[in-house]
Amino acid sequence: MSSAPLSKTCRDRPALWLWPGQALYVGPSLELDVHAGTVSCLAVGVDAEFTVHLEDGTRHTARTALVAARVRHRITTHGERMAFCYLDPASARERACRLMTAGGSPELALAHRHGHRLARLAATMDGGTPAATARRWLDLAGPDDRAHAPDPRIRKVTRRMTEDAGQRLPAAELAAEAGLSVSAFLRLFREQTGTTFRRYRLWARMLRVAALLDTRPDLSTAAVEAGFAGPSHFSSSFHAMFGFRPSRLLSQGVTITAA
Prior knowledge:
By secondary structure, this protein is α+β, with helices and mostly antiparallel strands. The chain has helices spanning 92-99, 115-123, 131-141, 152-161, 171-178, 182-193, 197-212, 219-225, 231-242, 246-251, and strands spanning 15-19, 22-28, 40-45, 50-54, 59-62, 64-67, 73-77, 81-87, 101-104, 108-112, 255-258.
């Protein structure tokens, strides 16, 4: 999907690639408000460093940073372009990405092993970049090594939740399919993904909205079909998760590719 005005080139526009449980944004730096993501986010300064402000008042300036799910933070950018890679905490790819960071903490891991390569590749990417190139970026950030995959019951659940109707499945139904009580299921889900079932379901609905934009007449229709109460519910949830309003991204003519 592309809603760019004709006066803009692909390089002027942000681009967003979506896969089940993961997403990649490359484009102009965004002035993000304080927020806490439902999933992990690998931030890469394409042409300059950036500063991560944590809720405890500490600041960390780096070229790459992996912010864990549910960590309240704000990012101040010092360059013109950024890359933000959103990773399912239950995925092997997120775990591999974390292993490639050299320092920091579980809440904020710094200095990705391939940080400079990630920045150079992102500098070549725009609204016309094919999904195969975006996948190469993703593989460089964190190879999908199934040897580090989480509990297969939770992996199956997260896969279902990113399918067409999965955003509406209640915890009780998924717990029964996994052979667990609801309390045991919710505890295991949080241990394996690093976030709650409710917040992860919100992430799945966000991905569904983006995927529906290609075939639905407007954002409101897509949001309701994905399980949100309405456009305002979607907008406020989006802002809390990513730190900016969806209308701001769409107004820049974002190119969205469901890969």
